[in-house]
Give the backbone structure.
Amino acid sequence: MNPEELRTLLVTATEDRPAGIKATFAPPARRRIPVLVPALAALTVAAAVLVGIVGLPGTTPSAQAQVVSAVDNTGHDSYRLRAVTGEKHWEGAFDPVQDIGIITNTGSGSETRVVDGKMYSRQDATATWEVRPLADAVPPEASALTRLVKLSALDPQAALAALRTVTDVHESGSASGDGWTGKRFEFSLADANSSADGTVDVDDQGRVRQLDMVFDDGQHNVLTFSDFGTAVEVTAPPADQVVADSGLPDPKKS
């Protein structure tokens, strides 16, 4: 077949094709991939929930979490303690790891030693020592506020533990002291009989440096923690100088 005959055959084969339609082969239709919009949305929601649970790297903990963490960190090392209740002042040192401590009223000379879970107290340098279990310092059912007050100069770590129950707490600014800087947190605490507003200063190492509380009756209590890592050595008084406790006064009023 010569070229002219081939051209005639093609023209004849396409005579019934509508005008304007070219005699070309259409490419096969491209397969459309379904878009899984619902599945993608579900994954997005799941990711958001996961982020909400674990938090993003670098997210700042809540004020409450920072205070609770500071309470824990303070109990990991020894320290010196200064306690002020109105006009009364105490000076001492505690080692929460060894569960020992000593504190003295700078005015009256009364002294308390904590050794092996026992509390030895005397009203002045010439008085007989009285002993009782430290666990009996406050009733087990005592409120967080009561424990915070009564244990502050006897078992400061247990007193600080009362801050775990504080929910009304927020960061209020910066804080600083001798050789440290950090943050200040404000909080409120109450029970059936009393209430108090306070601040907790936490240093950059995450330790409590000062606890300041003002009660609804006007009483002002301050606990100051310093010299972390200081050596603390405390021994129980000689056995022949100790008698069973006859009822020690409330540490808040002594």
User: Anything to note?
Assistant: The longest strand covers residues 180-190. Residues 63-244 form a domain with the outer membrane lipoprotein receptor (LolB), chain A fold (CATH 2.50.20.20).
